[in-house]
Design brief:
Chain A is an alpha+beta fold and 627 residues long. Chain A is built from 21 helices and 22 strands. The chains are: A alpha+beta (627), B alpha/beta (464).
Chain lengths: 627, 464
């Protein structure tokens, strides 16, 4: 058995799997240690990937050469592009997934990744020498050496599960909690906190009456997450997509749930940790928004070949009897059988302000954190941190400088900058509104933004780079065509009239018609044969046409954001020394001094985003730096 | 030099010259140490300033080389609870330039440095005691040369303007969060604001911002004086009137030679309002090229004025001619709000001949030379500019930087309105709102962060 590795990854959830794959693909020898090999890449909560802002993250992971996009595509049972009616920055891919197939696909992909070794065991302490990581010790008493360690422990660190008055130690239902790591880290000087999250009951699909629910179908022409071609079976229409269903709670449900409030671990104060506000438990929703008569519930299938159902929106930690009774009062669920009740789980996290933007800890060199251990929630948030930690762990072992994505480059950059700069005391989830440049950070251009970077690092394959370059060549050709080709009034006026926009009097360039809000790329394709012929000639695929349309139609907004980026980058380009003694500048407010000393920002831009550092503190720093 | 905030600075805080009392101010880490060495408390208690309570006043003598310079009161402000956020000692001494000089010299001898202009305020800003708008206001308070200027500046210093902007910012964030709700929580079961509601919200903000931006005009007038032009035919007595006005008030603020020989400007403060009077070359129809040029310049001046005092000589005009001239003037100067006809030299003709002129509305009968009815003319003038005084109670923008930021905000909001009208997607509306927030932030220095999400979570039930 090997005892020496470049990189060891502890935990095999979304973060751990991405970290292991990335480091291995870049050339590190990797050991992935997990407590149970049977549950690699579990979707612990809902069987879905993507969604608003999260879908963009998965696209970015894929563009960087991560696996989440491919795995999602291969195991999808339903695909929807959310927010289609809104601007292109908002288009967000979302997929319902076969839970078991998702995990299986991840495991297969990892098994096919050279350089990844596996070990089933629990790590219970980490070894450090002279402030540098040297390895881990497991519950079997084994010691493994490494140059870099990535911790992705999810909800397992001292996890406690709550259902009503009952509480038991565990990392997920039916699984042990991990002990030892928190204590080991505290001894090294880390600060830890508690967070809470929850999950709804799982139901027997055979016991549900779907005729009482609204149907929610997948897209007619489903897309996919990966920029690689044809990763999704439903895309090729090999199978029909599965449906989701919508139903609602009512007064009766609320009243039944309220009978359990006295036993609620949340209301009784047995749960200390803060839960996510945007994913509250049903009891929390009823309690906080008492005037709301009903709450929406999504009935989601767990996979192609299972009858198991996930009841999205009904996360709860009330006693299982109360859960069961309340379920019966929901339309369509009158005879519902429960496979297992919902529960809440409390776990340790480490405030992420203890990290560098590379996700390496400030305290211990070579130690990286990713996922829920950093106070985030969500598969996508975890996966992208895992990917970045894996990349930077590998770079660390080669003494190379880390990959830091800017806020203007990727949602991943926004996420990590928010975490390490502002910290978080509730589970952090990505929203598009967190990104100040979301028109630039679209799902359609993640490959253009990130694949060249990843290719240079040796992570994204040649195939991916070639694909991006080809796509860009074709896009430029299309734009050129729109700028140079004119259309005559008789060819287009009938369309213009039917869309309620002014007729043209003389020959007009295609691009100026496309700029009209009422006219789409597709319209012009249909009405103007030379365009459709040209697109066929240059072999322009649908997604390429779509991106060309976005670039041309929204050029004004894209340029405006680019300008704002340039403005911000002025502050972003001013480097600060991480170990600078801010106490020397007595004119800084006390709070600013303390925060700056704690966060150790690397740029003036980052400093300006720290809460408690005021604009006048930034002026002072600028003056001090001689700007 | 000014950027160094670690040393201790000293300066006279009151106006230079002889006065009853003068205040010398010391600020910095050594302020107490320096004061301890020169101040002798009358009741001989501890000399240790750091043991004195903050915000206390102490009576004693100031000494240098064993000699008493003056009897003084010393006020103590301990950091961070002082204007600059540093230790401050304020020495109130008798207002003799000699004494003041001695005190400052002694402080310097013990380690202080003479403060540069604005340095105390700079330190206050650096210590986070003032936001940008407030810091700018301090300069204005100090430079305020009239009651109204002073009032505006004070209001800004107290944060009146900043709090107006803060309110605006809050409503913008409220609006933005309604938009973000639609975007980030499109899949949730929440009711979204109607486009009509949104339009109403933005229109209201837009109006408020425009009103603020427009107040700049008034603010500008306050700062530089209300422009009043005295015009009329040559030799109608314009200069005499100007002199009469000056004599009446004896409050010349400054004497600025006009940009040309043709106009002379005087600033006068009347009942707390600044006026800038311009005496112009006479206006008459002429064929002389050079004189025509002068007339042209006079019209330029007239166009820029808020009030025109147009003078007539009753010996040379008939009431009909006066009316005709006034009509012509009104059509040529559509932007000038107040035109005051004045009949001068009423001392030179019999009263009966003046009667026909009564048909002219608001005409004043004066004799500039005899200083007859000048006071009445001034009262009329003050009445006519009442609107300026009235608006002093509300916020007035006096700073060019603020005006620019407000204009940009207004433009961004205009785009939002247009966007709602043309039904563009919320993410683009949001982009314009962020731009508006950015410009507002330039005034107070605040940047929108997670306020949007905070607002959403506190008001809507979110969560699948």
């Amino acid at each position: 058995m090997l005892k020496n590795y470049d990189v060891i990854v502890v935990g095999a959830g979304h973060a751990g799997c991405e970290a292991a794959a990335a480091a291995a693909n870049m050339g590190s020898s990797v050991l992935l240690i997990t407590m149970n090999m049977q549950v690699i890449a579990q979707m612990s909560c809902n069987p879905a990937m993507g969604g608003i802002a999260k879908g963009q993250i998965v696209r970015e992971i894929d563009a960087l050469g991560g696996y989440s996009g491919i795995v999602t595509d291969k195991s999808t049972v339903q695909f929807r592009m959310l927010n289609r009616s809104k601007g292109p920055a908002m288009w967000s891919p979302r997929s319902q997934n076969d839970r078991m197939l998702f995990a299986l696909t991840w495991r297969e992909m990892l098994e096919q990744t050279p350089n990844v070794d596996f070990w089933q065991d629990m790590v219970n302490s980490i070894a450090v020498k002279n402030g540098k990581i040297t390895g881990v010790t497991t519950s079997m008493g084994l010691h493994f050496n490494c140059k870099a360690l990535v911790l992705t422990n999810g909800t397992f660190l001292n996890g406690v599960i709550h259902i009503g008055q009952k509480q038991f130690v565990g990392g997920r239902t039916g699984e042990r909690a991990a002990t030892g790591i928190t204590e080991s880290l505290l001894k090294l000087g880390f600060e830890s906190g508690r967070m809470k999250t929850g999950t709804p009951p799982r139901l027997d699909g055979r016991s549900l009456n779907y005729s009482k629910m609204e149907k929610q179908e997948g897209d007619e022409t489903p897309s996919q997450f990966s920029f690689l071609s044809n990763t999704s079976p439903i895309k090729e229409k090999l199978r029909n997509q599965l449906n989701c269903w919508i139903t609602y709670t009512n007064d009766k449900v609320h009243d039944l749930l309220k009978t359990g409030f006295d036993d609620s671990p949340m209301f009784a104060g047995r749960i200390q940790g803060l839960g996510p506000r945007y994913c509250p438990s049903i009891e929390d929703k009823i309690n906080r928004f008492a005037d709301k008569e009903r709450h929406q519930l999504f009935v989601e299938p767990e996979g192609w070949n299972t009858i198991e159902i996930y009841l999205n929106g009904f996360s709860t930690s009330l006693p299982e009897e109360v859960q069961y009774k309340a379920l019966q009062a929901i339309p369509g669920l009158e005879n519902a059988k429960m496979f297992r009740p919902g529960y809440a789980i409390e776990y340790d996290y480490f405030p992420p302000t203890q990290l560098h933007t590379s996700l390496e800890t400030k305290l211990i060199e070579g130690l990286f954190f990713a996922g829920q251990i950093n106070g985030t929630t969500g598969y996508e948030e975890a996966a992208c941190q895992g990917l970045m930690a894996g990349i930077n762990a590998h770079l660390k072992t080669r003494d190379r400088s880390p990959l830091i994505l800017k806020r203007s480059e990727a949602y991943i950059g926004v996420l990590i900058d928010d975490l390490v700069t502002k910290g978080t005391d509730e589970p952090y989830r990505m929203f598009t509104s967190r990104a100040e440049f979301r028109t630039l950070l679209r799902q359609d251009n993640a490959d253009s933004r990130l694949t060249p970077l990843a290719h240079e690092l040796g992570l994204a394959s040649d195939e991916r780079l070639v694909a991006v370059n080809q796509k860009e060549v074709i896009i430029n050709k299309i734009i050129q065509f729109f700028k140079e080709t004119s259309i005559s009034p008789d060819q287009i006026n009938s369309l213009l009239v039917s869309r309620g926009t002014d007729e043209i009097k003389q020959k007009t360039k295609l691009i100026s018609l496309l700029l009209r809000p009422q006219i789409s790329f597709c319209d012009l394709c249909v009405s103007f044969a030379p365009l459709s012929n040209y697109l066929t000639n240059i072999n322009a695929l649908e997604n390429v046409c779509e991106q060309s349309e976005i670039i041309m139609k929204y050029e004004g907004y894209i340029l405006k954001e680019q300008e704002m980026v340039n403005k911000m980058n002025k502050l972003e380009s001013v480097r600060l020394y991480e170990n600078f003694d801010y106490n020397k500048i007595s004119s800084l407010s006390t709070e600013a001094r303390q925060k700056l000393l704690k966060i150790k920002p690397t740029t003036l831009g980052q400093a300006s985003r720290i809460s408690g550092v005021s604009p006048s503190d930034i002026s002072i720093l600028m003056v001090y730096l001689g700007r | 030099m000014i950027y160094n905030v670690t040393d201790t600075i000293v300066a006279l805080a009151t106006a230079p010259g002889t006065s009853a009392i003068a205040v010398v101010r010391l600020s910095g880490m050594q302020a107490f140490q320096i004061a301890e060495q020169i101040f002798k408390s009358r009741n001989n208690r501890s000399k240790d300033f750091s043991k004195f309570k903050s915000h206390t006043v102490h009576y004693g003598t100031l000494q240098a080389n064993g000699r008493v310079i003056d009897e003084v009161l010393v006020s103590i402000f301990k950091n961070p609870y002082s204007y600059t956020g540093q230790d401050i000692v304020e020495i109130s001494c008798h207002g003799s330039p000699y004494i003041v000089q001695q005190i400052i010299n002694t402080c310097i001898k013990f380690g202080a440095r003479l403060a540069l202009a604005g340095e105390f305020t700079w330190r206050a800003f650096m210590a986070g005691k003032l936001d940008l708008a407030q810091a700018e206001a301090v300069a204005d308070v100090i430079a305020a040369d009239s009651k109204s200027n002073h009032q505006i500046a004070l209001q800004q210093l107290r944060g009146g303007f900043s709090s107006d902007i803060k309110k605006l910012r809050e409503s913008l964030i409220h609006f933005a969060s309604l938009i973000e709700l639609e975007l980030d929580f499109a899949e949730e079961d929440v009711t979204f604001a109607s486009r009509q509601q949104l339009t109403q919200l933005v229109s209201n903000m837009h109006q408020t911002i425009d009103a603020l931006a427009q107040s700049f005009e008034i603010g500008n007038v306050m700062k530089h004086g209300i422009p009043v032009v005295i015009a009329g035919m040559p030799n109608v007595g314009k200069s005499t009137l100007l002199n009469a006005l000056l004599n009446e008030e004896r409050a010349i603020v400054s004497e600025i030679a006009g940009t040309t020989r043709d106009t002379i400007e005087e600033q006068i403060n009347i009942e707390g309002l600044n006026f800038r009077f311009t005496d112009t070359a006479g206006i008459r129809q002429t064929v002389d090229a050079i004189e025509a040029l002068g007339v042209e310049r006079t019209y330029q001046k007239l166009k820029l004025s808020a009030v025109v005092i147009y003078m007539f000589d009753p010996k040379h005009v008939t009431p009909v001619e006066v009316l005709k001239t006034l009509d012509e003037l009104k059509s040529k100067l559509p932007d000038v709000k107040v035109i005051l006809p004045v009949l001068n030299k009423t001392d030179t003709i019999p009263e009966s001949e003046l009667v026909p002129f009564n048909q002219i509305a608001e005409i004043s009968f004066i004799s500039a030379k005899q200083k007859w009815q000048i006071e009445k003319l001034i009262q009329l003038l003050l009445n006519k500019v009442q609107h300026v005084k009235v608006s002093l109670d509300s916020t007035i923008v006096v700073n060019v930087r603020h005006k620019e930021a407000l204009d940009n905000t207004s433009q961004a909001l205009q785009k939002v309105l247009h966007g709602i009208e043309t039904q563009i997607s919320g993410d683009f509306l949001a982009s314009d709102i962020r731009e508006a927030l950015y410009h507002l932030g330039l005034i107070t220095g605040e940047i929108a962060t997670n306020d949007l999400l905070e607002n959403i979570f506190s008001r809507f039930c979110i969560g699948k």
